[in-house]
Amino acid sequence: MVDGRSGVDICPLSTLQRIKIGTERIGPNNVCVCAFDGIKRDTIGEIDLILTIGPMDFEVTFQVLDMDTSYNFLLGRPWIHAAGAVPSTLYQMVKFEHKDQEIVVHGEDKQSIYWDPSVPCLEAREGARI
Question: How far apart (Å, rounded) are the C-alpha atoms in residues 22 and 45?
């Protein structure tokens, strides 16, 4: 999920568990975030992950939260600015340039607000970098 209002990139602990990344990779920090429900929450820490978006790999520093979410990752302003991306929530897509070419990445499906976080949307391929 891309959210231009978010000042941090978020990775739920459940996402790390689903893709079998151990908590020993989470580094300490003193960050408190205000969630969508307005409640302030301390993060568990931060983790650097490599995400492949379109033809590009991005190293993203995520704040790790232990809470139920309707997304696997939340890409906020830090990623948007680093990628030079232009997100569109209306069209569920994001655009950025790579090697003088415009890259357009569309959302997979229409997302329901009733999405069940226990059903994984993420698949890790053996040997793939995440």
Answer: 13
Q: What stretches of the chain adopt beta strand conformation (E)?
A: 10-12, 32-34, 40-42, 45-53, 56-65, 86-88, 93-98, 101-106
Cβ within 8 Å of residue 70, ≥6 positions away: 1, 111, 113, 115, 117
- Residue 18 host element (H or E): helix 13-18
Residue 67, CA atoms < 13 Å, CB-side half-sphere? 21
Report, in angstroms and rounded to the nearest whole number, the Rg of the chain calculated over CA atoms.
Answer: 15
Q: What would the mean pLDDT of 62-71 be, rounded to a whole number?
A: 89
Task: Supply the pTM of this predicted model.
Answer: 0.75
Q: Encoding tokens for residue 91? A: 């069209």
